[in-house]
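Q: What changes when 5-amino-5-deoxy-1-O-phosphono-D-mannitol is included in the input?
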Amino acid sequence: MCSIIGYASRSSVAPVLVDSLKRMEYRGYDSVGLATIDNGRILTRKGVGRVSAVNSSLNLITMQGQVGIGHTRWATHGGVTEKNAHPHYDCAGDVAVVHNGIIENYKDLRDDLIKSGHKFKSDTDSEVIAHLLESYSRKNLNIAQIVSNTCKRLKGSYAFVAVFENGTICGSRFDEPLIIGPADEGYFISSDVLGFLPYTDKAIFLDNKDIAVIEGKDLKLYDYDGNPLFRQITQVAWELGSIDKGKFTHYTLKEIHEQPLTIMKASSRNVEKLKLFCDIIRNSSTLYLTGSGTSYHSALVAKHLLSKFAKIRAETIVSSEFQYDLAPMDSSSVLIAISQSGETADVLQSVKDAKQMGAKILSIVNVPTSSLARISDSFLTIDCGPEVGVAATKSFTGQLSVLYSIIDELCNGCLGYQLSKLELVDALNEVLASEEQIEKIADSITASKDIYIMGRSIHYPIALEGALKIKELAYVHAEGIATGELKHGPLALIDTNSVVIIINPKDATFQDNVASAHEIKARGAMIIGISDEPDDSYDMFIKLPTVGRIHYPFLEVVPLQILAYYLALRKNADPDYPRNLAKSVTVK
Ligand code: M6R
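A: The predicted holo structure follows.
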């Protein structure tokens, strides 16, 4: 959601902090702030907008000091204003705090603190942390005690980093990531390894309720009782090189174009781990799949294939509903959790609930060092490199690629997935070559207010995914519909202003879809067909190459991603950073 960075160095930290925040901006990007320590004084600059814009107007990089913290915000409590931008302060201005997460009991804490004389300046939940630190600082406690007493008062999820006037940085976490980066010049502390990766590839992943204290070039870790802790240093392998846009104008377009490569990479490593994964699935009595947003859509595709080809029934539960729909699980149950970031709060909550009932947890993630990977019994990675665009594109097809490999293994190669990958890559390249045609289609439907996307069977989750892309990138109402459901209600919405996209490859769903297309046509809607077979009901047609039938989902989603991208451009929306959204949704 928000990104946090802190750095204690031997040289000026402001340019490094700004650079780190730019790299993590995908996590949240409505306001930015920095606090540095200059000659025993806290300097602050903060403002509303993206990092580059705020840096241009406030010259963040010129702030003096060898110790500092920074933050980009994705508002949860309190509007997007300068006063609500982090860092937040105590009354005396002796400590500055940046926070990620939600303090659920902030109203009670705030009322108590106000009663004892504290004055609040913002509308955020985060500010209570600064005032709690201040009140415990007055009690002649050491820094670990100050932090632990503060944390013990907080309910909810948090990762926070505070800097005191004397240059001490401290931080703690509960259900939000916080990672230390030991570098040559000093220590980083960040919500994301991307915050410090150009400076060090070493990381110390803090556990819930760990306290970190950085004083000069010393790092000390404590538990909430003040006992010193030791945490292993991990080497992080992450393809930093790919965090630039290359020849593309946006990350989103670049990531769409990377898909032929990333689906190849997705399931090529970890053959032994894949077998282990499949053994655990084979030995399970009940199998569940969960995920949020796009990752949930890949679970829906997998459910279908598991049943059809591996003869395994699985239940899919969207992560935000998991806790209300607790399926009976025990030690013979397996939950497969799918998440690009591995940090989505709803997914992590589902995993915790399932674990509590004794279920085994398998996960599919892009970030191997993520919280989800670390709490799973086993995990597979999609290896698609950093996905910066908020809209999931290459991670979706990466997830499909891993899921196809799993199902192929479970059915002893009946999908022929590994063998057909090269054919799939050629076909994807062919679809990507239709970009110009799809851009023109975007031009012709820019004014439409409602877009319906329909598909049956394995293509229905792709209709849902396409609709999600159009909603989040172009801010146009779009709905994914199982084509057969049309006559059970949605047909009432169809008129001459409607745009209907039919995902209709030449498989068992083709004839029924054609019948539905003609019903839609009779109501005057504009129809866009996505298929390897034309039909006279289509006003516009995006031709797919013919591939093995089960491989169509990979090809169908790409034109929808491209369409959403160009619709966003036509609407003057930034496709990389859609309004109101963040890449990692680490709050519930
Ligand atoms: O990191 P995750 O895969 O857990 O994220 C889940 C969703 O928040 C994510 O897929 C979201 O729906 C995308 N922005 C959709 O493009």
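Observations recorded in class: Residues 382 and 399 are 6 Å apart (CA to CA).
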